[in-house]
């Protein structure tokens, strides 16, 4: 993989991380549970830091780092807003949509790991993948708990 392609892959992950940051922030605003607000705000901060790490990596490779979220992430957040207006903003519904967003993030990171990235970039993507997997699993667990209650 040439440098330009690797930068493109990392820029896609910056968009994914920014999508996660914005998505988690919106979830924090909408949930009623103080515990979930704290959880979502922490995940938003971590996604923001992940985006900054990727931006630094892109810069170190001589590229121009992405600075915004993706169009698909924006569309998903608007869909969540519309759905919430119709169904009400209960914590389980918010967790369902959050898990859907984390499914996309996992898919994007798995696709990036299939690429032949330079060693430093691969190491960073692998590290962040584990964080995305953890977020997904935690959101799923919280959603399952909300379903029972």
UniProtKB/TrEMBL annotation:
Biased region (Polar residues) positions are 56-73
Residues that span the membrane, as ranges? none
* Residues covered by region (Disordered): 54-73
Question: What Pfam families does the annotation carry?
Answer: DUF2383
Q: Which residues form the DUF2383 domain?
A: 6-115
Q: Which InterPro entries match?
A: CHP02284 (IPR011971), DUF2383 (IPR019052), Ferritin-like (IPR012347), UCP029477 (IPR016920)
Q: Which NCBIfam families match?
A: PA2169 family four-helix-bundle protein
- What's the protein here called? Aldehyde dehydrogenase
Q: Which organism is it from?
A: Pseudomonas taeanensis MS-3
Q: Please name the taxonomic classification of the source.
A: Bacteria, Pseudomonadati, Pseudomonadota, Gammaproteobacteria, Pseudomonadales
